[in-house]
Amino acid sequence: YTRWGPGPGGPVCGPQCVAVAALNLTWEEKRCDSEADGFLCEYNYPGTCPKLSPGAGLAVTYTTPFGAQDSDLLVLPPQSTARAPALGLELVCQEHSGGGMRWGSASPGAWHCQLENGGCEASCQWDAGTPR
After folding, report:
1. Distance of alpha carbon 6 from alpha carbon 47, whole angstroms
2. How many whole angstroms separate alpha carbon 69 and alpha carbon 83?
3. Is the dihedral of CA 70, 73, 78, 82 positive or negative?
4. pTM score, two decimals?
5. Which DSSP symbol is given to 46?
6. For the residues of 32-71, what is the DSSP string, one character each?
7. Rounded distance, CA 49 to CA 100, Å?
8. Tens digits of per-residue pLDDT, 19-52?
């Protein structure tokens, strides 16, 4: 994890520790005797979903089951959501019946082709305003 927040602003004497800033999920250097805003825990899961490849100018925001929310999260465990408000679309990271993790929507079939090829393995095409 390499997402560091702003430093303390000068040389610091004595041992230093790190903490995760709850608001922006960045590492911050702090004195080891400082009170922590929370805690860090380990969670094991069967896999992760890849970050989506949205079309040009399309914003996607991810939310993990732990409440972390950002458009640039790299680890997306099961039950994470991906929201593309411009498309009115929400996807959920789920275990696929054939193995591995995959993004899916509550509605069967393809979703908007502008986001990750509509979830299609082949070509996603628009047909009368509907992705196929």
Report:
1. 31
2. 11
3. positive
4. 0.66
5. S
6. TTSPPSS-------S--BPPP-BPTT---EEE-TTS-EES
7. 8
8. 777 667 777 777 778 777 666 677 778 889 989 8
